[in-house]
């Protein structure tokens, strides 16, 4: 028991940094998720709509799953409510009819335009503890970890 206590309390620098990064990320995600919940929305579903827009509005489900870090079966489950709410549309791939493409609808785009600005503002408020140069430095460091 004493050996385990020492192991969990005497953390090497890389482990302390890792846990600090995880905690900071969780706090920021919590701010965003609480915002989406206050609007009756789901952050994971919003992320799908944002990723679709980043790719010009259309992408393969497998690519979308990879972008948001979920399995192919899970992406299908996430897409169902978005399709039911007419925020996305599924269609046959124009060159390979065996594949399906996902497209954001005008309703999905309108939803993002309506709610993304305030969500981004809330995140910006939390990030104000960092100066511009610190944010640039953090971005460089995070990109190194990728």
TrEMBL record:
SUPFAM superfamilies: Winged helix' DNA-binding domain (SSF46785). GO terms for molecular function: DNA binding; DNA-binding transcription factor activity. The keyword Magnesium does not apply. GO terms for biological process: response to stress. Coiled coil: none annotated. Keywords: DNA-binding, Transcription, Transcription regulation. Pfam families: MarR_2 (PF12802). Residues 14-146 form the HTH marR-type domain. This is MarR family transcriptional regulator.
């Amino acid at each position: 028991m004493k050996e385990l206590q020492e192991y969990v309390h005497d953390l090497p620098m890389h482990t302390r940094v890792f846990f600090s990064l995880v905690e900071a990320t969780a706090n920021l995600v919590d701010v965003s998720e609480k915002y989406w919940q206050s609007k009756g929305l789901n952050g994971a579903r919003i992320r799908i709509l944002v990723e679709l827009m980043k790719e010009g509005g259309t992408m393969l489900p497998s690519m979308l799953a990879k972008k948001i870090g979920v399995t192919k079966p899970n992406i299908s489950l996430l897409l169902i409510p978005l399709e039911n709410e007419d925020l996305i549309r599924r269609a046959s791939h124009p060159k390979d009819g065996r594949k399906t493409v996902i497209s954001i609808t005008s309703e999905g785009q309108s939803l993002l335009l309506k709610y993304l600005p305030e969500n981004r503002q809330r995140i910006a408020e939390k990030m104000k503890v960092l100066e511009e140069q610190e944010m640039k430095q953090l971005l460089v460091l995070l990109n190194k970890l990728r």
